Every structure is written in structure tokens, then in C-alpha cells.
Amino acid sequence: MTTLLNPYLAFEREAREAMNFYHGVFGGDLVATTFAEGGMLHEPDEAERIMHSQLTTAEGHTIMASDTPAGAEAPARGQQVSISGDDAHQLTRYWEGLAEGARIVEPLARAPWGDTFGMLVDRWGVTWMVSIAAPTGPADAAGPPAG
């Protein structure tokens, strides 16, 4: 049996906007259910807030998110997501998409340990770490991806 570990991001009221943005970056299928649609409406002003959303990409990545319901404690900032692999083109594209409106903590560049690594904080306070595995053969020795 296979298991998956999926990040589940908590927002105050920005889940729809954030997930639409991530959908634009990663592609895939995005499904969202509001509190009203899910039968969990506590306050009239939260009817259109997101009770649960899920983005599933062609690469098999899954990101879930929700807004905080009325009466619940607001989510703590400091949520972090790491995405890594050896597809430099794909990961660089993700980095460039996520960097829109973000604060760059570490630019995407060759790191001392050999991988290409970057870290940013997006406009919703989520920290994203992107790591591209170091080249393993002579054909891959061209250096970090342009960007």
C-alpha cells in the first residue's frame, strides 16, 4: 500500500486566492468546497470561505488548504513547503511562478552542497524551499539553471 504526505496550508481568509495562484504555478486539478457547500456554515460571512481545497498535479503533488472558520484560532504563520527533485526545468518554472510577489530569502542558485537551492516567502506568508538535485553526469554539468 502506498502512503502520501501532503502539505495542508491554513489561511485566515486567503485560501481561494492562494490556491488559484498555486494552480497557476503548478497546473493540475483544483477542487474547492466552501463552508456553505460543505454544510459547515457557522456565520453568514464565511459562506464563500474555503472549507477544504485540494490541488493535485500531473506529477503527483498534492497541496491542500482551508480558511479558518469563525470562532477558531487564526493559523500561525511559518508554514513551510519543500519541493525537490532532479527536473531542473520543471523546478525552475515552479520557482519563477512562486517568486511572483514573493520575498526572496535565498535566490535559486548552486548551494555549497552541490544542489541548486532557493527559498522564498510568498504573499501569504508560506515559505517555499526549492531544491534541484546536483548533476550526476557529464551531460548535466552545465551548472545551475538560468533564472
UniProtKB/TrEMBL annotation:
Family matches, as InterPro entries: Glyas_Bleomycin-R_OHBP_Dase, Glyas_Fos-R_dOase_dom, PhnB-like
The name this protein goes by in its record: VOC family protein
Annotated Gene3D superfamilies: 2,3-Dihydroxybiphenyl 1,2-Dioxygenase, domain 1
CDD domains reported in the protein's UniProt record: PhnB_like
Residue ranges of every copy of the Glyoxalase/fosfomycin resistance/dioxygenase domain listed in the record: 6-130
